[in-house]
Structure formats: structure tokens, C-alpha cells
Amino acid sequence: MSYIEQTVEFLKDKGFESPEVGIILGTGLGKLLDEVEVLAEVSYNHIPHFPTATVEFHKGKLIYGQLSGKKVVVMQGRFHLYEGYDFLDVTYPVRIMHRLGIKKLLVSNAAGAINLDFKKGEIMLIDDHINLLGGSPLAFKGVSKTGDRFVDMSCPYDPKMSKKVEAIAQENNITLHKGVYASVMGPQLETRAEYRYLKIIGADAVGMSTVPEIIVANHLKLPVIAVSVLTDECDPDHLKPVDVEAIIETAAKAEPHMITLFKQLIGKLEV
Question: In terms of CB atoms within 10 Å, which end of the chain has fewer, N or C?
Fold first, then answer.
């Protein structure tokens, strides 16, 4: 029995039966769980072959329950390359949620605004991305046994779900930008020169996650969208030292808008 099969069997035994939607919650974005009717939960460190979250503000639990009339499986805390994990670790949960049965994946993150027309506390729907992580979650022997090796990325974010999110934002008077997310290794924040470079190559926001999960979702032909909660403004000409606590605080203030978008989207999804 493979690692994936062992993990899936363990979770099914814990009550994770036929989830329809998967959700990955980013830094400072855990309050969505207050809206979930929790039916089962398990800490990452109890799940066979699962990585363990090491970032202090990531809780490290997999939650199964009901939200907006759908069965959901929620990652409360994700994994990052900067924690010392590899691409297979970081994306392992996406493969597990897919094998459990999810038909759609929603991803959130906290990011810095490179586009200075975007302000902290606002939300950006990711329309495209730039992978600056130095690798790929598909670059391993035997990948063709799990899907196509050469995955098309001409439209990595699902247009149907994206349009629904834009309509929901308009209906609820939520400022929602669309833009390009650049994923960098971290954990150090960017220099002034790096922010200028990111702007030149077309990034609207920058963070340290999300892209590996999106690549694997596309590998699995799993429709996916992602939103960034913009927690700081990355102006290289007026750069101040970053306060991580302030970033978490800004994420918390913007979080209700993200919750509205995800809750209403899940209610409208056909799965």
C-alpha cells in the first residue's frame, strides 16, 4: 500500500467521507473555521506520512465538516519550503484531498502588494503566477504514473470559479483586485532591489506559498482558485522594517471579506 493510500485510509477511518471542496488557509486566515460545522478533525502530526506545520501561527489541523451546504476538508495551516520541506511534502495534502474526493480547491494566502495601486487590507484574486521557488512539485521520478509530466499552465486558475468570486465581491461591495502572484522561497523578506525586480517582471503581489499547490491541482485536473489577502505595501522607495505581528493583524482585519467570498462561492458551486 502506498503512502497516499495509507493516509487516505486513516482519514476515512476518522470520518473524512467524500468531501466535495478542499480549502487551504494561509497565514492569519483561520477564522473561516468558525463558519464550519466540524464533523471530524485530526492534528497533522497524527496523520501517517503527513508533514507537520512548524510556523507558530499555523495551527496544524485537518478539519472535515459542512460549510454552505457542502462537505469540506480544510487545512488549518499549510507547509512551506522555507520550513525545510521539499515540494512533495508541501503538496502532499493536495494529493490527499483529491484522493478523498474533492472536486474543487480554494486556496488563500497572505501576500505583500507589489502593485502600489493595491492597498494593505484589500484582497487580490490570483489570475496568474510566477514561480520563483527554484523547482517544481512535478520534477520527480515516476510523476507520469500520477498524471501528465508536462502539465499545461496556460490557465492555471479556474475561470468559472474566478468569475463567480468577482460577482460575489461586487454584490458585497468588497474591493477585489485581480493580479499576478510571485512565489519566492523566503523566509527572509525582500530587499528594495528585489521588490523593484518583481515589479519589472509583472508581479502584483509576492508571497512564499501557493504556487506548488496550484501546479499539483492542475496536474490532477482539479479546478482551483486562490486569493491573496494583502498585508503590506512593498514600496521600495519608502521601505520600512517589516513587523510580522502587524502583518498577522492586517490579515485578521481583511479576513471577513475572504470568508464572505469563500462561503458564498462554496454555496454556488456545482460539485
Answer: N
Cβ burial, residue 250 (10 Å; 0-12/13-18/19+)? buried
Write the DSSP symbol of residue 161: H
Residue ranges covered by each domain of the chain = 3-268
pLDDT tens across 158-198, in order? 999 999 999 999 999 999 999 999 999 999 999 999 999 99
**β partners of residue 24:** 75, 107
The answer to whether the beta carbons of residues 206 and 198 sit under 8 Å apart is yes
Per residue in 191-250, pLDDT (tens digit) is: 999 999 999 999 999 999 999 999 999 999 999 999 999 999 999 999 988 888 888 888
Nearest to 42 by CA among 71, 9, 10: 10
Considering only CA atoms, which of 228, 186, 182 is closest in space to residue 201?
182
